[in-house]
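Field log, afternoon session.

UNIT: design team B
ACTIVITY: writing a sequence onto a fixed backbone
BACKBONE:
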């Protein structure tokens, strides 16, 4: 599986699944631009990966709640590299709250980052890809968006929306040769799940047929497949990477 000659953008690429995705794409030969909220961190992570892998990786600052900033960044990437072949809309936030404790701020953060941020990232990427009439986009959904989770109503709602962003835009963009898919991770060992109590982790593990938590590298490898030519006839799918937990 090679991505040699491809130009990729990964939002939220400084840690967790995002960073592993940047690594996986760069290892396959892609030129990768990663984004993070903090410019210094984004450049530092990009520099580390570029040196380690002897690959073309660069970092830029991006707040995905700013639609104008997303559009400007994507246009800049496409102009600098002459095209945009791959976009992974990974940036997102997680905040737990029982339904009785959900306030306007929580709802706004979940929807503006996870939903609006994903929509505008896909929109900007699609505009850049339409000129070449080819491209592959992957969005980060979640098993929580598929089956719900107590204490995560706002997050679950946002990730259910993300899954339907993939399905709907896949129907629109197929005529331009652009594929859109999503991945729905289960419980993955990242900073986002580090706050979970031991009993919660134990229950999730017991409910998972593979009887363990997932690793971010395992999600990244699925993303790499979905954006590659190996998945050339795959679009509009939400592929679970959950060890069977959705069952």
């Amino acid at each position: 599986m090679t991505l040699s000659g491809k130009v990729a953008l990964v939002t939220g690429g400084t840690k967790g699944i995002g960073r592993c995705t940047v690594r996986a794409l760069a290892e396959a030969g892609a030129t990768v631009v990663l984004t993070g909220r903090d410019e210094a961190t984004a450049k530092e992570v990009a520099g580390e990966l570029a040196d380690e892998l002897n690959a073309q990786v660069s970092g830029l600052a991006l707040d995905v709640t700013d639609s104008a900033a997303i559009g400007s960044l994507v246009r800049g990437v496409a102009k600098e590299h002459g095209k945009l072949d791959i976009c992974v809309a990974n940036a997102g936030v997680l905040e737990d709250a029982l339904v009785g404790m959900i306030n306007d701020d929580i709802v706004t953060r979940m929807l503006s980052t996870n939903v609006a941020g994903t929509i505008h990232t896909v929109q900007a990427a699609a505009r850049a890809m339409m000129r070449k009439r080819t491209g592959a986009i992957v969005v980060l959904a979640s098993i929580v968006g598929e089956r719900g989770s107590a204490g995560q109503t706002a997050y679950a709602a946002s990730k259910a929306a993300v899954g339907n962003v993939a399905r709907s835009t896949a129907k629109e963009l197929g005529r331009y040769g652009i594929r859109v898919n999503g991945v729905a991770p289960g419980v993955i060992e990242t900073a986002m799940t580090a706050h979970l109590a031991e009993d919660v982790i134990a229950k999730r593990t017991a409910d998972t047929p593979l009887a363990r938590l997932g690793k971010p590298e395992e999600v990244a490898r699925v993303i790499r497949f979905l954006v590659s030519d190996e998945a050339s006839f795959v679009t509009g799918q939400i592929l679970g990477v959950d060890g069977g937990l959705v069952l």
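LOG NOTE: The chain has eight helices and seven strands.
NEXT ACTIVITY: expression trials, pending approval
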